[in-house]
Description:
The complex is a heterodimer of chains A (295) and B (611).
Chain A: H1 9-14, H2 24-30, H3 32-49, H4 51-54, H5 86-121, H6 123-138, H7 141-152, H8 156-183, H9 186-193, H10 198-234, H11 246-254, H12 262-288
Chain B: E1 6-17, E2 20-32, E3 37-41, H1 48-56, E4 64-72, E5 75-76, H2 82-88, E6 93-96, H3 110-121, H4 126-139, H5 145-148, H6 158-170, E7 176-180, H7 188-205, E8 208-213, H8 216-222, E9 225-230, E10 233-239, H9 240-245, H10 250-257, E11 301-314, E12 319-334, E13 339-343, H11 350-358, E14 365-370, E15 373-374, H12 380-387, E16 390-393, H13 407-417, H14 423-436, H15 453-465, E17 471-475, H16 483-500, E18 503-508, H17 511-517, E19 520-525, E20 528-534, H18 535-540, H19 545-553, E21 577-578, E22 589-593, E23 596-599, H20 603-607
Parallel strand pairs in B: 3-8, 3-9, 6-7, 7-8, 13-18, 13-19, 16-17, 17-18
Antiparallel strand pairs in B: 1-2, 1-4, 4-5, 9-10, 11-12, 11-14, 12-21, 14-15, 19-20, 20-23, 22-23
Pfam family, one (chain A): BPD_transp_1
Domain ABC transmembrane type-1 (chain A): 94-282
Keywords (chain A): Cell membrane, Membrane, Transmembrane, Transmembrane helix, Transport
Amino acid sequence: MTPMQKTGPDAALSAAPASKRLRPGRFLRRWPALSLGLVLLALACVMAVFAPLLATHDPQALDATQRLKPPSAEAWFGTDMMGRDVYSRVIYGARVSLVVGFGVAVLATAAGMAIGLVAGFSRLLDSIIMRIMDGLMAIPSILLAIAFMAMLGSSVVNVIVAVTISEIPRVARLVRSTVLSLREQTYVEAAITSGASTLRIIWRHILPNAMPPVLVQATYICASAMVIEAILSFIGAGTPPDIPSWGNIMTEGRALWQVKPHIVAFPAVVLSLTVLAVNLVGDGLRDMLDPRRKS
Amino acid sequence: MTSPILSVQNLHTSFRTDDGWTEVLRDISFDISARETLAVVGESGSGKSVTALSVMGLHPRQSVRHSGRIEFLGRNLLELPEDRMRAIRGNEIAMIFQEPMTSLNPVLPIGAQLVEAIRLHRDISRDDARREAVQLLEKVRIPAAASRLSDYPHNYSGGMRQRVMIAMALACQPRLLIADEPTTALDVTIQAQIIDLIKTLQDEEGMGVMFITHDMGVVAEVADRTLVMLRGDVVECDRTTRVFRQPGSNYTRSLLAAVPRLGSMAGRPRPAYFPTIDPETGQAGPDAQTAPPPAAPRPVLEVQNLSTRFDVRKGMLGRLVGRVHAVENVSFSLNAGETLSIVGESGCGKSTTGRSILGLAAPTRGRILLDGAELTGTSRAEMKRQRQNLQMIFQDPFASLNPRIRIGESIAEPMIVNGIAGRAEARDRVAALLAEVGLSPDMMNRFPHEFSGGQRQRICIARALSVQPKVIVADEAVSALDVSVKAQVVNLMLRLQERLGLAYLFISHDMAVVERVSHRVAVMFLGEIVEIGPRAAIFANPQHPYTRRLLAAVPIPDPERRGSKRRLPELEIRSPLRPPGHIPPPRSYRECAPGHLVMEPSEDWALLGAA
């Protein structure tokens, strides 16, 4: 016979948290940095999705008569060496940058977490996997990405693959070390003594508590992937030159940046703001998802 | 009486929060004279540490506001600018902290850290500072001080590190020493040595000491006067003897009632509830013994010749350089409704014993029988089913709950993973369990950080009970709790034992609590049980020198019996690290009374200073 007396289960059910609706004003005051990041990121996404509506010109159209014009009412960000409208190219460039940034962040984080978890739970695989990761880490990520691009050929998908591979070791190492320290936590031991399976322990106890550092790392990777994409395009090893990306717009302005700074300046500013937005969102999410900081 | 060194008058301290200023200290006044020790006691959150930090001027100035006066040798510290304050801090007022493990920089040798501390405040050469450092280490009774200067903190034991911290605090001959729970993290025997040391040094140096603690036994040992705090208010401040003999408030009386007193159980064979006193009304609760455990045909848990050893490997190829014999040849049995306490100091193997039984550490050999059936070596599913009967409560209530999971789910987890209850049924049972441990069922949707330490420990007990185990291993389960909370949780555990016939394996270093809760006691030393028997016999008639030593070190919460104990010989616990081929010597036990077994004399006896 169970020794526990029944106490109204209805009382317990009705005590479920009345999910507090966060009004926009309160949200803004509580999470100002996160709000700013979300707004900026939303703008970047709008740019990418509605590029055909927002662009004033065809981003590919050459116009020899309009070369190197400064910003004006006609061409808001001026024109480049081949007379293409820089504003329209920056708008379209958001597509490549965001796809590369988010793609790399999601893929590298997912793969890195899987690898890190395996390494954190299997001693044998740990020494093998981590030596491979050390090997990858020994090569600067840009060099590694250039090598992959040389092997794979230039396309947006290949940029994502190349940058992802060079970013995986970062996540894997972080997840492995987090898992190793979380495994020692008393609440994990408590779960072991209550009979929970390893999979359940990973899913319920390790993963949620490993998320905050991984989330921050993911936003860092997202931002750094955008920058690497820009660098790859900048040195001509990335996105094919006919597809505008913030990186290859800057490449084309490189030779002239002292006399015609607008070609480099506008994509650079937009890239910086987007990277900033991603970082703000990452930090904000980490805080927001922590129940200890909610009350 | 001479004029005080430190005089705090009407101190109010407020913290800036999201909703304006919150007052955390209200109208605190006290004096400390030369050679006088003032104990500041209270439970966590009472403001004792905040008071110390206010005196040291260590609160950030933007977010903390003070009013009143803190007069130190005629100067009001609250009005001093930060740079003048810095000259006083560490120089005239020194502070030692609770955690000797983290207060020293692990990558610098002890000598270098001492020399730095000395030269920071005094203009002397490196060589002079070095000589001074040796003298200081000698002063805090570190043997062979000169040769230990180049050692790193990890070469020192916890007690030695606390001595080094005291040496550092003394480097500039401070007038006032603030000790914030300096012995809380140490073993009892080490605690007794450190308290002796602080008292001796105080006489030598003529310092005033502000001693912050939650342990009434320590207060009785050290303090001339005692200040009792409760939620930021002074409850009373008087001579220690008076506070203990005629407490002026119900709160102090309830605090004193909750203090476990060694020897209070003489003549009572069974565990007894703590006599709790209501802090509001002063009404005393009953001081009753629990009912005798039901007669059982066989023990619910039997441990036979359990050994757990850990290999120590070194180098690239993992060469075996030694083995830690954490648990060596341990045997005992436990009946339903009975509490067996395992006592000993840190490193004696008591926790590893518990962990080996639960499968958190892999035993090297030995048998564990649950209800007569062997736990080790059966099939996986069978083992899982058996393990339900063995649950554990951990020491740190803050670390043993997953911070991202609602407590209701944490409590339900054992039921769900063992397939005992579905989600909806588990929810009902969680509500019942919460009521059982004295919490409200509607708390199940909260997160762990919304609870106090005592409440969390109740949650952990509810989690352990959820699968209706027969045995609960409680590893220092009440050690981290405040006195009155400790008494409540112990009473809860005793009540549950009576109601449900639970058997407890109570692992603890706190002899006074052990005396209250146990039917039987096993004393462990360097991985082995040196004495085991009925609690009354062990406490009334300890046979092994180590047991006597443990009992002698327990502070007595009675200021009038201060100093009546004999001084303990200085001894650091050796480690059970042995060379790889070590074969433990055969041990035999002598039965000196029915059920009371003592290990036969060995070379350890001489070491322990046995007569």
